[in-house]
């Protein structure tokens, strides 16, 4: 009769859950516009807009085992927050569940990737959709800045790394990417080569059966997602991102959506992010049928 | 010297009019975000932005016989509102004019379709652009809910029915659509098959010379129309919808644009809706030259 | 480690709770601007802004037994919604808890008053803060319209009725109020007579030890609460409303805050409403010490 | 059945009208924020929020003879706009009706005052509520700038001039005001002396039975009216302005409300302006009973 | 340690500068929505969002000689403003620098084109991206209206004129364009023919080595740039405009971006405009390497 | 001819300046809503709204020696930012100028107070207007959190401390305040005792001729300043704050305005903050005449 403000269709309790969604309302290192702290709750609100059924995969979300764990207590300091997040995500992965983190900023991805890598029976890859390389060693005096997450994944977790949608970074990052043979696709690459071909290339390149998938919403063009921390024109379309998620979800052992700043639009970015979250879950669940 | 806040270029009085525009500021059954009650006046304001001339059809709207009848008195209850609307639209159609209804919500379409069907000399078809099937028998305890309009048209008016842009609905609606051989095109279908080919298919399928055309603005992708009651990602582009309207307007005996919620953007959806309204009128008028 | 999006400091489970807060996201009969459906969740978000301690009453909310039950499932139709609400609030009162309803629109007050009246060991009074009389028998064809709630309380529950802040109504309501000797105070009355004197008059007038207290936020001046369904200038100040709540909370057996439309400001009205909710609880709890 | 987007309760046709309301959507000389072009239609929308009855004066607006003439065609250039306005307002006054102009910017007041002065059988006074002196001879290279309106009224119409709420101006304006013995009241004066006493002083000072009353909404504190072209803190309260209007309306032969910029709030300023418009009409009509 | 609110990476002083950016916060002839007065500062704020490096051209903006001169003092009257602008831009061009004007409205382009034409050693062409022809002789009683800029360039500067993105204008403008053999491309032309082919046609058509390039942001579809004075659906995509700028920048002797109204979105249009400004500079600088 | 986006009337260069204004766009420890990073530039924009003349003090700001130094480069980490700020403010005070800091968050006050104290020839007092005590030793794991600034001033600078407008804090802060005999005035105290009487008490209590004055804008009621990080109802009025600043400015050796979050209103809070800044300067300058 009464219901809580949870992600719609997240009807499972923790124990029975296959998918555990949780929010981390932390945006402490945001450099341009902050406010991704409000994204997890905005996405829960957005989820009320959608039907429970996904026709493409013929899946009803109510039939899946989805749990919404709520939001993580957050700190002012990024290091403490990452540590707290690390403690929180570890048991979720250990319990054999697929963690879905709703940021908050991109720095939050690192502990989630690490937890997934630790519990995988083989090396996992890391595929990130992002307008930015996030390859800095540190930024504005902070190592675990949102602008450095990919570098830390490379350094600390895996070098099976692909980034899609990238179109912004200092000269050093582009040089680093080239010198280290990092696999990246700009939105122009995606438009010219086609999603299908790129996905096939990525599959060959990674050579692993399991990945962690991270969606920095600024990978999308601001026409589709104007409410972002660092919006970057000339981005991916909603369809391109959807098709990439459809293809990669089946092999994903963890997923996140980060960098939505809901105060900068009228729900558009949270709605699209939530829809993409649902596409991820349906695509993954379909692969386990 | 003074002018009223009417739709621009609606210079005709009722008697001489070929096109009668009217608003119905009713959104009483809206399920996610309400506010389409403000759409008719927002569209009148938006109309001040546009030139009187349509170059594609070489038509000046000031040369057409367009009347803006104002807004319908509305009720809290949907049943009474539909009845009132039925009384209002009936004489417009009886007088041989083409009614153009500006919602308000999609439930308002039904009395308009019925009036047009009653006065047609043959069976009319119903073509709707919508993200949603709207095929429920009832929703949230209300039969004439905005989420049921297509079902009622099917039940009460015509089975010459096509829906374009559909991408959302419960399992039951997709099953109903398949079981009943309902003709529908998702935005992916439109992208892959092309507007032209689809329009030719629709023409063959309907096999009738007259249709009622209903534009639920959520058929469009939220990038083009963010101010909606139930925005649904992965939608049609502005160009696709324009081309469909261009093709279908000539055979239309009634038209409506519904589900714009102008409080959720900065005029974008009302501007596009108003532009599409003008494209409809020009396309129709060109066919009568 | 994780926490849900509940009202802050609502740490008790239902069984142990003294105060049970719940939202009813229903605004189906709203006549001017809708959107109070978003108020309960907006107030939960606003609650994160406040300290757990109330210095005036020397009370820490974390020490009180407050439960947040979540939001009521809602219908499109007001009658069904009121029935559902009636079922929901009944056991709360029966269990000896003080119900605190967060609207949603003012019509939702009636089932709450009725439940409280049914379980009181004596006749209860009804004190409402409102810009409007809400004394119509019906409005826009709907009996249980938000604009009629006071009339139905008078007809169906109690004639120990006082309204504070009233400044708007049709001639019939003012006539009805005068003919029936209804006790009302305009904001001008409050400013001229003073809150203290008026509260003493009310106490004498009611002659009962228990009341239900209802706060229609439009009692406040729009300077303090711009995000409302039907904002009415020349209203009460925040301090006047706070002082009235401080005085009346101790004898209240039920409470509600209604008619906040959070889409029409940047959090101001939800923040003030939430603060007044907290003042109510502290004042009531202090009286039970 | 259908109704136009006019000021609510403006039910009279022009011929029978006692009060003729019209908008002038012109803001071409606005210096800080523009947008008062949208105010007339915003006030019509706001008028839907209010009851038809004014209890203070026991008057139902539907019983009065109010006509809404619509909006004046506007030009880019202020001089042409003022000329057009002059042509438009002249016959209204000549026909013995009370003109009520909704700006647009303050420069629009001048032709209205002139028309009223021309048709008065005695010298009229000019009382203006404004945060600014508007006593410049010209501003930014434009004589009939919004920042000069009072000077032109003084020069071209009447020296029976009082300004209330003034708190901003260059040194020259304050010096001019003092040297020329101009009667002005700052908001501090109003707070300290009291509305009643000031109104009595003004009455003595003017020594005339008829005035034109002009309300620049920035006379009010931005807490009450945030949506303004040039908001100025430390202003008048809503109650002070209401009481001044109540007192001066009976002797007014013309009235205007200017400088609302509705894009800069969520309806607050248009709602208050519309309410004050209604208070003016009720107070004036009560005096003619 | 302290830095001023200038365009990011505009590190050069005037003397050493190759590119001189300046704003003209003037929108006095805007016909639908005003507010482009706020665009120059909004673009400076937006510039903080972007990296200093452009990977496509392998250029770091910090290595270029860019100067931000600030904003021009503005007048109410367009004629005086254009005169002031003429005085301001003349020495910039005379000093051999490339002027980049940030409007403000489109009328401001004329003095900039004239200054560039005066100092060119050959006839220059004029290429404008715009939804509108801007070919009127005068508009709303004002010759140098924003809606007339192209006509005045044609009349007073050069007939080597091309407009891209045009889709709106009165019958007279379309007729004028056809009768005078004006080269124009609608967005449909661009989509059907392709950017590359069109650019090659333009190059042949103009037959000159130097052009002035003007970007009226309403050339873009409102999905990409919703914050505009006169938004027009069915426009160019961000990629199309970027590619056109890339191609034309090398031969440009002057550039402007006009008609952004930042109050009508959440930074989207200013961000895209600023990005396109940066693409222009990089493309031009790359051609001078 | 061109002018930079500086605080209006800040015409002096650094060397000649008596008042040095600078912004610190840092909000890294904000706990509820962030965004005070945008306040310094928002206040510069707001300053364009105001006349150069202050009639109350008969002072023209253009005659004063005011310098706007721009914004401090900021870090992600509060400790580094405070250190950077310390380096920046030190020479300003050493050079005998009065520093005026525009936050950013309240933690930024500490280095400014310290610099002023270091260079004063006697012990200085600290008077802060704030809704919050800010007396925590640390908050959310961060010592120099915005919620701790008063405690650090007490610990590290001076115990001549008074806070006005305080109405929120955990039990520990109220206890600490009482146990340590801290002088505080709630808004209720101010209303009941009167500004004049309180200011006289403060003067006696402090017993020093020089103070640092800090204005946390949340001291004001949200009706006057809705755009805040942590808005707290029941606050001070604009007039109360103005009168306190008038009285304390003459003895102030440093001043700041912090915690405005301009994204949460339409300019209201930045406009009022800027006005109060100007009142401070005029009151101080008048005392030096
Ligand atoms: Mn990232
Ligand atoms: Mn990114
Ligand atoms: Mn529909
Ligand atoms: Mn739909
Ligand atoms: Mn009510
Ligand atoms: Mn009410
Ligand atoms: Mn004025
Ligand atoms: Mn003014
Ligand atoms: Mn143009
Ligand atoms: Mn244009
Ligand atoms: Mn503070
Ligand atoms: Mn504070």
Automatic annotation (TrEMBL), chains A, B, C, D, E, F:
Cofactor: how bound: Binds 2 manganese ions per subunit.
Coiled coil: none
Signal peptide: none
Pfam family, one: Arginase
Domain of life the protein comes from: Archaea
InterPro entries, alphabetized: Agmatinase-rel (IPR005925), Ureohydrolase (IPR006035), Ureohydrolase_dom_sf (IPR023696), Ureohydrolase_Mn_BS (IPR020855)
Binding site for Mn(2+): 106, 130, 132, 134, 216, 218
Cofactor(s) of this protein: Mn(2+)
Keyword ATP-binding: no
Protein name as catalogued: Agmatinase
């Amino acid at each position: 009769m009464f219901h809580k403000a949870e992600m719609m269709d997240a009807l499972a309790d923790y124990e029975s859950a296959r998918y555990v969604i949780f929010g981390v309302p932390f945006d402490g290192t945001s450099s341009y516009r902050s406010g991704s702290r409000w994204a997890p709750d905005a996405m829960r609100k957005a989820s009320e807009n959608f039907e429970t059924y996904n026709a493409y995969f013929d899946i009803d979300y109510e039939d899946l085992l989805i749990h919404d764990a709520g939001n993580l207590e957050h700190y002012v300091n990024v290091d403490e927050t990452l540590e707290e997040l690390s403690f929180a995500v570890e048991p979720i992965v250990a319990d054999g569940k697929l963690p879905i983190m709703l940021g908050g900023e991109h720095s939050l991805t690192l502990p989630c990737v690490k937890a997934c890598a630790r519990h995988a029976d083989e090396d996992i890859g890391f595929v990130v959709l992002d307008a930015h390389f996030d390859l800095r060693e540190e930024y504005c005096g902070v190592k675990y800045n949102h602008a450095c997450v990919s570098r830390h994944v490379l350094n600390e977790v895996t070098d099976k790394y692909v980034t899609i949608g990238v179109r912004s970074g200092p000269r050093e990052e582009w040089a680093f990417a080239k010198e280290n043979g990092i696999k990246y696709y700009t939105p122009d690459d995606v438009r010219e080569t086609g999603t299908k071909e790129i996905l096939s290339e990525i599959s060959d390149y990674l050579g692993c059966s399991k990945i962690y998938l991270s969606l920095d919403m600024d990978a999308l063009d601001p026409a589709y997602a104007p409410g972002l921390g660092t919006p970057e024109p000339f981005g991916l379309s909603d369809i391109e991102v959807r098709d990439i998620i459809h293809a990669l979800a089946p092999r994903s052992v963890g997923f996140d959506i980060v960098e939505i700043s809901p105060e900068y639009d009228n729900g558009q970015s949270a709605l699209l992010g939530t829809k993409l979250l649902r596409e991820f879950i349906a695509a993954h669940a379909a692969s386990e049928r």
